[in-house]
Amino acid sequence: MTTKPIRQQFADTMLEVGQKDFNLVVLVGDISHFRLQPFAKTCPGRYYNVGICESTMVSMAAGLAKIGFYPVVHTIAPFIIERAFEQIKLDFCYQGLGGNLITVGSAFDYSNLGCTHHCYGDFALLKTLPNAQITYPASSVEFDTLFRQTYRNDKLTLFRIPERQHGQNFGAKNIQFGKGIKITDGSNLTIVAAGPQLGNVLAARSVLTNMGYDTEILYIHTIRPLDIELIRASVGKTKCVLVVEEHMRSGGLGDDVLRVTKDISNVKYSFLSIPDSFVTEYGSYEGHCERLGLTRDGILSRVKADFGRHNALNIKR
């Protein structure tokens, strides 16, 4: 079965929601025109291509929110999160306005365009802002479900759309904003995964079993607000946690996991992410992941290096 690209699901969701909710307005920064043409034609007067004017686009969206609309701002991650950060901070968050930022090109998804088109620290930046929420839907159904659950609230919400999906099929009923998903139960290792890296974590699990690890896998699609209860329960049980994500080490999900579990005694931590440095090579997404260890084998190597072979091999099967 062919999986619908999340970017196409975004366009389809805008059309479906926009036909029912006349307060939904979409603003784009000169991208995704073809996919959004059905929305533009069906919802005239509620689709605006603002062009390469990201700061202006955010301010326009905030003005629309102020008078009762539900704005969606869509463009490439570095150009809105980094370039228009001041407008996000002052026009949305400081004013207490709700809105939706839907980005593509986060991390190094635009792998062959270099650092100008990379965005490794979007979570970290938005976490500094009161009134901001962060989601990371790595499947089409997650995006559709999370958007419908949140787009009309009074918070600014980031939807970080990755180019790749994790390959798992979650039913909409299992997806709830602010709640993580326990993929597998385990007893002596917790792996917290975000985004497409869930696929690599699942691929590594069988090999980890042979290394003595009964792995509990948690999938986090909502970065803020975080499902603290789920994470604390798992880490308190296993006392051993690895966080895998496509975000820079500082300010990412790993820092959040450490922050909310630091009072639990005798926990071993490890983190696999983008280092706090620029990814200066040009090439493919897969090539970048290979170099950074964001692969199945990279996960296995990190567990072996930081935790070794677990001495408790009496795993219930």
Q: How does this structure look, described?
A:
This protein has 12 helices and 12 strands. The chain has 317 residues and is of the alpha/beta class. It has 2 domains: 155 residues, Rossmann fold (3-Layer(aba) Sandwich); 127 residues, Rossmann fold (3-Layer(aba) Sandwich). Strands 2-1-3-4-6-5-10 form a 7-stranded mixed beta sheet, sandwiched between helices. The chain has a 5-stranded mixed beta sheet with strand order 7-9-8-11-12, with helices on both faces. Helix 7 links the parallel strand 5 and strand 6. Helix 3 runs parallel beside helix 5. It is globular. The C terminus is likely disordered.
The number of helical segments is 12
| Amino-to-carboxy terminus distance | 31 Å
> What number of structural domains do the residues give?
2
* Strand portion: 15-25%
What is the H-and-E element order?
HEHEHEHHEHEHEEEHEEHEHEHH
Order of strands across the biggest sheet? Answer: 2-1-3-4-6-5-10
Strand pairing plus helix content: what structural class?
alpha/beta
> Average pLDDT across residues?
96
Low-confidence stretches: 313-317
**E-strand count:** 12
**Shape label:** globular
CATH homologous superfamily of the largest domain - what is it? Answer: Thiamin diphosphate (ThDP)-binding fold, Pyr/PP domains
CATH architecture of the largest domain: 3-Layer(aba) Sandwich
Computed over alpha carbons, the radius of gyration is 20 Å
The profile of the biggest β sheet is: 7 strands, mixed
CATH topology of the largest domain: Rossmann fold
Helix fraction? 25-40%
